[in-house]
Amino acid sequence: MTSDPAPVRILIHGASGRMGQALLRLAAERDDVVVVAAVQRSQPAQRVVDGVPHFAASELPGAPEFDVAIDFSLPEGFDPVLALCEQRGAALVSGTTGLEPEQREALDAAAQKIPLLWAANFSLGVAILGELVERAAAALPGWDCDIVESHHVHKKDAPSGTALALGACAEHGGASPRYASLRAGDIVGEHLVQFATQGERIELVHRATNRDIFARGALHAASRLPGRAPGRYRLRDLLS
Ligand SMILES: NC(=O)c1ccc[n+]([C@@H]2O[C@H](COP(=O)([O-])OP(=O)(O)OC[C@H]3O[C@@H](n4cnc5c(N)ncnc54)[C@H](OP(=O)(O)O)[C@@H]3O)[C@@H](O)[C@H]2O)c1
């Protein structure tokens, strides 16, 4: 008789946020992961919630052992969680957007020591959209390429990390994308990539209506990353 492997121990960084709350709720529904620490910037109102110990960011160095951290916080909270993963030899899954160039370089350096995945968007639909954008850009030389992204009023960075990632796909195909950002209401996330020339245009659109898609993708990645060789992984590496 074989027993199931031990659940992957997860630290959630940014636990009180919109994404953090979705991660906590969806992790509780899975058998293959267990949340051993939930970390937020401010002091938590309750020390233990539904069996999960909660910590303030200032208490991060004393967090219990974990296999992988999932980080959906803000750029100012990113450096300490990356450093902790390196110190502990733990994996990192991060979706925090608006990182500074030095923070991106720090990710590359950390990948010499730990397995990690940073993605601007954890949805399968956006991964496919990126492929379509690159193909369209390559097939339509000389067409104008514009990316319009819309998000809720609380989102701090603009253009969104996803818009920039789609722009990189367009550039791979030979286009020179321009960006526009809208902040309105409670929009979870919409990305329109438009190719236009005289007399015609093509619009490729992705609409996220529920942030659970991002949380599911991050949990899936987190369940598969620990134990892998150090390096930077892509979402699609962990899907197969
Ligand atoms: N890659 C993707 O698929 C994807 C999808 C959605 C969102 N995102 C990104 O994920 C991030 C979080 O989004 P959200 O909507 O959940 O934001 P949010 O609701 O504002 O939550 C931010 C969280 O980060 C914590 N935090 C802020 N500063 C911190 C610090 N210095 N140290 C530690 N924790 C800190 C906050 O704690 P307090 O509550 O104590 O302030 C809160 O728990 C953003 O960068 C967003 O763009 C990425």
Automatic annotation (TrEMBL):
Q: Taking every annotated instance into account, which residue ranges of this chain make up the domain Dihydrodipicolinate reductase C-terminal?
A: 125-239
Annotated positions binding NAD(+): G14, A15, S16, G17, R18, M19, G95, T96, T97, A119, A120, N121, F122
* Major site of localization recorded for this protein: cytoplasm
Q: Which residues bind (S)-2,3,4,5-tetrahydrodipicolinate?
A: H152, G161, T162
Functional note: Catalyzes the conversion of 4-hydroxy-tetrahydrodipicolinate (HTPA) to tetrahydrodipicolinate.
The similarity comment for this entry is: Belongs to the DapB family.
Q: What name does the UniProt record give this protein?
A: 4-hydroxy-tetrahydrodipicolinate reductase
